[in-house]
Design a protein that fits this description.
mainly beta; 8-stranded antiparallel β-barrel; globular
Length: about 120
């Protein structure tokens, strides 16, 4: 698998870094910058946006992320994904100020688009 294989959009099922492991859903968009590094944009729920940059090696994707919390503080962390295939990412994450006894978890599933061209006669 190459880093280019990961570019695209994914649905997310995840749980937070806390004892209750509150679940969430969202969307992850992966793209590449001019140096073939990963750019990531997460949308958690309907409005919480997080951004990150990362790298890929041996089917492992590592992304350093950040976001503005509802309290207007900036939160930072790291997400690590095992790339099961180009369509499934299985990961865990941790924030700097999260509960150190727990890790958040995410599973990402590629959103398939129909690229079939229809010939109009």
């Amino acid at each position: 698998m190459t880093i280019e294989d990961l570019v695209g959009e994914y649905n997310i099922l995840g749980s937070n870094q806390d004892a209750e492991q509150h679940s969430y859903k969202g969307k992850l968009i992966l793209s590449l910058d001019s140096n073939s590094r990963i750019n990531a944009i997460w949308t958690i729920g309907t409005n919480q946006q997080q951004t990150g940059t990362g790298f890929f090696k041996n089917n492992i994707l590592v992304i350093n992320f950040r976001y503005n919390g509802e309290d207007h503080n900036i939160y930072k962390g790291v997400a690590v994904y095992q790339c099961i295939s180009k369509d499934i990412l299985d990961g865990f994450w941790s924030e700097k100020h999260g509960n150190p006894l727990y890790l958040g978890e995410e599973r990402c599933f590629r959103i398939k688009t129909d690229a079939t061209l229809i010939k109009i006669t």
